[in-house]
Design brief:
- By secondary structure, the chain is mainly alpha-helical.
- The protein has a domain at 1-203 and 396-456.
- The protein is 72% helix and 5% strand.
- The protein has helices spanning 2-8, 11-52, 55-89, 91-124, 131-160, 177-181, 186-214, 220-254, 256-263, 294-300, 321-352, 359-385, 398-401, 408-435, 445-448, and strands at 166-168, 171-173, 274-276, 279-281, 284-286, 289-291, 390-392, 396-397.
- A two-stranded antiparallel sheet has the order 1-2.
- Strand 1 (166-168) and strand 2 (171-173) form a beta hairpin.
- It is globular, with a radius of gyration of 24 Å.
Length: 456
């Protein structure tokens, strides 16, 4: 069956399907990050406001809850599109391996429904529950958002390190869904993605309030609006760099061609330098800064560590080097830039118990959210393009999995139109929320729900 699909699909159809999937995933992953990170910040702000009586925290919680609701609705739409695309664009993948890695998608559906139920309770029962009960109602939203990321990324990790099945005569047998979900790449990929989601959320929200402070709004509401998400992202950033390093080291054994493409390494050997920058031209990485023995030390902690290059891979099985190499370099550069910004904040707080006073700190914070999104997308380019030409690593090629039906470019055009409208509508609604006055309930729960005010 896979050979039949490969014979029927044209290069144009394959490219259209890949671009459509890239657009859908690249768009959805941004919204999904807020679904993971924003509930925790919102619930924390509400809890802190209830505990201290600080109205600024309560106003932040109300504003962020509204934004969270909008982004949840938008994410539900884009996630539904993706679920249909898996079957429509890649029928051979789902027909052959759906029984193997379908479990995390099913569990993600349960997580989504739990999240949807408690998002509704959290948004519409704010004045109908006690403060403590309302905060507790937000906790399942936090857990379900992280759980959704766990399940979806575990399925992607399976594509990089497929496990949980046997191949007998080209047919999938002895399926073990739990072994497939808990594959070798899963722990690091899941942690890396969840941390990235909190970084994107934290830096993006902090950036919004940094812009307000640059415009002269230096009240407590804006200061807390910057500090709470920025501190959370700043704490996570160094942890993320450590996890990313471990994930890159994992590639040396799990996916050597991907690591070779990341480094633009053409020849296998020891004492391999670490390449910074550069571009792959005529089979060689040119104009890069090379740190002697750097890659061998990072992978095996000794200069004599042997790193496999692209020369051990047949040309037809090699990933495209420049997208993978440049994507990884961009991700790492932004990551260390955000680490430097976080260190600047920590140093100023340690010295003066307040954020840096320089306007440049606010300017850099204002763009930190966009930078974190770019790093996120660059990381996914590295992950997905670095696996090519395989959709399931060393088991099924992307060209074998694509839908053989002609005219897939029509679907691409339709998806581009849908996401253009969805982007404009989301931006419009969020801008309307931005211009609305920020309020929080002034009455206590017991004052609001007395028999006189709410008769049976």
């Amino acid at each position: 069956m896979p050979d039949l699909f490969a014979a029927s699909a044209t290069p144009a159809d394959l490219m259209a399907a890949r671009v459509q999937m890239a657009v859908s995933l690249g768009w959805h992953i941004i919204v999904a990050c807020f679904g993971v990170g924003m509930p925790a910040l919102t619930v924390f702000a509400e809890w802190r406001g209830n505990r201290t009586g600080d109205d600024a925290y309560r106003r932040l919680a109300h504003r962020w809850a509204k934004v969270m609701g909008v982004l949840f609705a938008v994410g539900a739409v884009s996630g539904t599109v993706l679920s249909f695309e898996m079957g429509l664009l890649w029928p051979a993948l789902m027909a052959t391996y759906g029984q193997v890695f379908g479990l995390p998608f099913a569990l993600e559906g349960f997580a989504f429904f739990i999240e949807a139920i408690f998002v509704g309770i959290y948004l519409y029962a704010w004045d109908r529950l006690s403060p403590r009960a309302h905060v507790l109602a937000g906790l399942p939203v936090c857990v379900a958002g992280v759980a959704s990321a766990f399940f979806v990324v575990s399925a992607n990790a399976w594509m990089n390190t497929p496990r949980g099945f046997d191949l007998v005569g080209g047919r999938v047998t002895n399926v073990r869904p739990w072994a497939a979900m808990f594959n070798p790449a899963m722990p690091l990929q899941v942690i890396h993605m969840i941390l990235a989601a909190f970084m994107v959320t934290g830096f993006c929200i902090a950036g919004v309030y940094a812009v307000g402070m640059l415009r002269g709004r230096r009240d407590r509401y804006h200061r807390l609006g910057l500090l709470v998400p920025f501190i959370s992202a700043a704490i996570i950033t160094p942890v993320q760099i450590v996890v990313g390093d471990a994930l890159a080291r994992h590639l040396a054994t799990a996916q050597p061609p991907k690591l070779a493409a990341i480094e633009g390494l053409t020849r296998t050997g020891s004492h391999v330098p670490l390449s910074i920058g550069g571009i792959f031209v005529d089979g060689e990485l040119r104009h890069a800064i090379r740190i002697p023995n750097g890659l061998s030390l990072l992978v095996g902690y000794r200069p004599s560590t042997v790193i496999r290059g692209l020369d051990v891979v047949p040309p037809a099985d090699r990933p495209p080097v420049n997208p993978v190499h440049l994507g990884f370099q961009l991700m790492v550069a932004i990551g260390f830039g955000l680490l430097a910004l976080s260190a600047w904040f920590v140093l100023a707080w340690w010295r003066h118990r307040e954020p840096p006073r320089s306007p440049w700190f606010l300017r850099l914070t204002a763009i930190s959210g966009a930078a974190a999104i770019v790093a996120l997308e660059a990381g996914w380019v590295t992950t997905e393009v670095g696996r090519q030409p395989w959709v399931v690593w060393q088991h099924q090629r992307t060209a074998e999995a694509v839908n053989p039906a002609p005219g897939l470019w029509v679907g691409l055009v339709a998806v581009l139109a849908v996401y253009t409208v969805l982007t404009a509508a989301t931006a419009y609604v969020l801008n309307r929320l931005r211009t609305q006055p920020v309020t929080a309930p002034q009455e206590s729960w017991t004052d609001q729900y007395t028999p006189e005010k709410h008769p049976p």
